[in-house]
Amino acid sequence: MQPSLLILVGTGLNVLAGIAVAMAQPATTSSSQSGLDVKVLFASNCGFCHGDGGRAAGKGPQLMDTKRTDEFLRDRIKNGKEGAMPAFGQMFSDPEIDAILNYIHELKPEGQG
Question: Which string of b and e fits 16-44 if b means at least 16 CB within 10 Å?
C-alpha cells in the first residue's frame, strides 16, 4: 500500500472509532446540558389536559399548588391512569420527569413568575 493510502485508511479508522466511542457513552440528561426546555415539553405533552401551563384545570387537574407527593406525581406521569391520563414512562426519561416535577413545583400564577 502507498503511504498516502495508509494515512487515509488510518484516519478513517480513527473517525469510526471515535463514532463508536461516542455512541457507547450515555446521552447527557441534565436539562441545562441537553437544552431541554421543560415549558415546551410540558406544553406539547401535558398542556392539552392541564390548562394554562398547569396553572388551571382542564381535562386534567390544576397542578399549580398541588398537594400530591413527588412519588405520586412521578408514578402518574410514568404509568398514567386508565381512562384519564396516558402513561408517559416510555416517552420521558427519569431526568425529564424530574424536570417536569420541578416545573410543577415552581408554577406561579401568570405574571408572577
Answer: eeeeeeeeeeeeeeebeeeebebeebbee
- The topology under which CATH files domain 29-106 is Cytochrome Bc1 Complex; Chain D, domain 2 (1.10.760)
Is the distance from CB of 13 to CB of 20 less than 8 angstroms?
no
pTM: 0.68
| Amino acid code (one letter) for 69 | T
For cell 416510555, the residue is 90
Name the 3-class secondary structure at 40: helix
Determine the Cα–Cα distance for residues 45 and 22; give it in Å rounded to an integer.
29
Question: Any idea which of 9-13, 18-22, 40-44 has the lowest mean pLDDT?
Answer: 18-22
